[in-house]
């Protein structure tokens, strides 16, 4: 078994545990048991659950972005926002452990954000614009649910598309 498959098995187990218990209630022992590996195997790669969940989030979010057709960046960004908003792991983290997202909003870019920028920059053609698009998309991803009365998510997503069209057009 390759280490990539081994890591995927561990990340799959972590995903199942987080979906079942939330991040705070997930332990490396739970993940090791579910993955069929020893705790020491996990500790060699991930010193704690938070580090493991960070790798899990990166894997899951990058998968969403990898499926996007970047030939139309506006449609891709709106689809990416929708895809993440409906992703079971995203929903669980936002509902149960939203503080995990704060470092990526306030302190530093994460691997997922770097991945999105690497997809956006070539099609947008300007690193500054790519960053602005990512910031706008993040705000629609995180805050749109707070703006639903009297509008719907579909209506807000249409507004996101209109903003991006005007900005990138």
List keywords for this structure.
globular, about 170 residues, single chain
Outline of the structure:
By secondary structure, this protein is mainly alpha-helical.
State the secondary-structure class.
mainly alpha
Rough outline: globular
Total of domains: 1
Average the pLDDT over all residues and give the rounded result. 94
Sheet of most strands? none
How many β-strand stretches? 0
For the termini, the CA-CA separation is: 48 Å
- Radius of gyration (CA) equals 17 Å
Low-confidence stretches: none
Total helical segments: 10
Order of helices and strands: HHHHHHHHHH
Give your account of this protein's structure.
The mean pLDDT is 94. Helix 1 packs across helix 4, helix 4 packs parallel to helix 8 and helix 5 packs parallel to helix 9. The chain is mostly helical and 169 residues long. It has one domain (50-168). It has helices at 3-21, 28-35, 39-45, 49-66, 73-86, 88-96, 102-106, 111-124, 127-143, 153-168.
Tell me the layout of helices and strands.
Layout: H1 3-21, H2 28-35, H3 39-45, H4 49-66, H5 73-86, H6 88-96, H7 102-106, H8 111-124, H9 127-143, H10 153-168
């Amino acid at each position: 078994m390759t280490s990539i498959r081994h890591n995927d098995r561990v990340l799959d187990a972590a995903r199942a545990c987080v979906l079942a218990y939330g991040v705070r209630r997930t332990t490396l022992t739970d993940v090791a048991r579910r993955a069929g590996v020893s705790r020491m195997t996990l500790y060699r790669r991930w010193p704690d659950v938070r580090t493991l969940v960070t790798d899990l989030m990166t894997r899951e979010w990058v998968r969403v972005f990898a499926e996007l057709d970047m030939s139309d960046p506006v449609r891709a960004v709106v689809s990416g926002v929708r895809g993440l908003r409906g992703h079971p792991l995203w929903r669980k983290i936002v509902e149960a452990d939203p503080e995990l997202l704060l470092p990526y909003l306030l302190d530093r870019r994460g691997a997922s954000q770097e991945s999105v920028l690497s997809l956006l920059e070539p099609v947008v053609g300007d690193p500054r614009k790519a960053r602005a698009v990512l910031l706008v998309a993040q705000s629609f991803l995180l805050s749109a649910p707070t703006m639903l009365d009297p509008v719907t998510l579909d209506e807000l997503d249409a507004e996101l598309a209109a903003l991006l069209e005007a900005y990138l057009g």
